[in-house]
Amino acid sequence: MNVKTRAWRGGLAAIWLLISSAGYADTTTNAQITVHSDRPGAIIHPEIYGQFAEQLGRGIYGGIWVGENSPIPNIKGYRKDVVEALKAIKVPVIRWPGGCFADQYDWRDGIGARDKRPVRMNASWGGEDSNQFGTHEFMDFAALIGAKTYLSINVGTGSPREMSQWIEYITADGHSTLASERRANGRDKPWKLDYVGIGNEMWGCGGSMRAQFYADVYRLYATFVHASASAPIVRIASGANADDVGWTDTVMSIAGSQVDAISLHNYTIPTGSWSHKGSATQFGEDEWMATLQGALHMDDLITKHSAVMDKYDPKKRVGLAVDEWGNWMDQDPGADQPALYQQNSLRDALSAAITLDIFQAHADRVHMANIAQMVNVLQAMILTDKSRMVLTPTYYVFDMYKVFQGATYLPVDVQVPTYRYGNASVPSIHATAGRDAAGVVHVALVNLDPHHAETVHMTLPGVNESNVHGRVLTAPAINAINTFDLPEQVKPAAFGGATLKHGMVTAVLPPKSVVVLDLH
After folding, report:
1. 55-74, pLDDT tens digit by residue?
2. Does the annotation mark 488 as catalytic?
3. Does residue 297 carry a pLDDT above 70?
């Protein structure tokens, strides 16, 4: 955290002052946005607000699971504060146990009495896994916060038999040996298993496979995903790394008839270098711009992969699951273990917002997305330190955007100024909109410019609402963060900068801000 950030102790008071000001020293006034409520699009799948919890480090242990005997307040071993925070943002689905970890995971290590479970080396991320958090713990955790379940299946070191037995153990409602074993381990009724991912990053840590070989392996595994007609399981193929549309083409051409969804992974690296990704907190406007450009690249990726999928699936039966995405910076130098722990700033909040905007714009094809990751890892919702917990700026974006879950997407036309830094540039405003089941129109506006406020004039054909209110997320510095000592440095506040008159909304967006408006 820099001196400016440390010096800001006003918290919400500073935000209120910023928002309630009569005007800004430098405000652009030619931003024009049209929300086409008269041309409704696809339903926005709630699952695009999904989460990813990989079995590594503090992402699980101390982050989600502390055990029943912990002095940290818990619900049957799950951190009470974390459970309540995740329920509040309506997490729709959780992906587990990996990631790279999945293709070394033996599901039998994580069942039975906890004091008898084996300790295994974590070959992907270092350290060891006690297996105290296993199948029962994951399935019950998902139920506790109201989320669907997404298992990443071990293909790299596993077998179709192991997968089918794991699925039977979870879902069988009868007297088979596996169903009886589950009951003996404390779970009488079967769980609902919603998604299975057949391998993870099979082109890399999942087995270094070529696309054609993996497509045949997928067909083999998919054949043995047995589910009842009343409780179907969505089968997700391991998809491409970023721009590799050839992988998508091959898998769709060979295995498309057995694919319910195909994944896509993409991480934004501010510096563009995996060996030195950049600091999560100590960065300048060059890396601010690079991060926003990286987030905006998601639109190009989805467009390209969707075009390939359209060749084999013009009716868009097969979903695109962006089941790993987010910002990846260098690990926090103060982290106590090599477990991908990084801080989370206002920069992460804005990049998350524009990525979610993009997913919603592609609601006809994007059926799921899972940010990496849920707690204490990469672009996390939540950070914990023993008994303390802090909500990150990214968490608050998910909180503000939860109104879009299940809404009907409304197309948006944007004509806005350009924000420039050096030779790089992006549109200064990003936007998305949707109408929920109750008829309320929600519009999200993101001002990417860290220096200038923007006055937005927004027309909404077909909207007759007469009231507008909303919330804003911003902070004085681009690298403002929430810490355990100062947990409310970046937090939403009521937004008073919008008016609605004769079907037009005028909104003054603070620099570097996310605003969500509700029209009713």
Report:
1. 988 899 999 999 999 999 99
2. no
3. yes
Q: How many CB atoms lie within 10 A of CB 496?
A: 13
Q: Are 364 and 308 spatial neighbours (Cβ–Cβ below 8 Å)?
A: no
In the chain, what are the domain boundaries?
A: 3-41+410-519, 46-405
| Helix boundaries (H) for 275-428 | 285-312, 346-361, 393-401
Q: Which residue in the block uniquely carries the two structure tokens 């711009």?
A: 289
Query: Residue 27: its pLDDT value, please?
Result: 64
Q: Are 419 and 485 in contact (CB under 8 A)?
A: no
Distance from C-alpha of 409 to C-alpha of 398, rounded to nearest angstrom: 17
324 is catalytic: yes
Vertex 329 angle, CA 155 and 211, to 5°: 30
Which is the CATH superfamily of the domain at 46-405? Glycosidases (3.20.20.80)
Pairwise CA distance, residues 55 & 236, whole Å:
20
Marked catalytic residue, from 47, 137, 287, 324: 324
Predicted confidence band at 26 (pLDDT cuts at 50, 70, 90)? low
The set of residues, in sequence order, having a beta carbon less than 8 Å from that of 140 and lying 6+ positions away, is 76
Predicted model pTM: 0.93
> Which of the following is catalytic: 54, 168, 201, 287?
201
Protein fold of 3-41+410-519: Immunoglobulin-like (2.60.40)
- List residues bridging with 459 in a β-sheet: 34, 504
Residue 21 has what DSSP assignment? Answer: S
Q: Is residue 371 within 8 Å of residue 379, measured between CB atoms?
A: yes
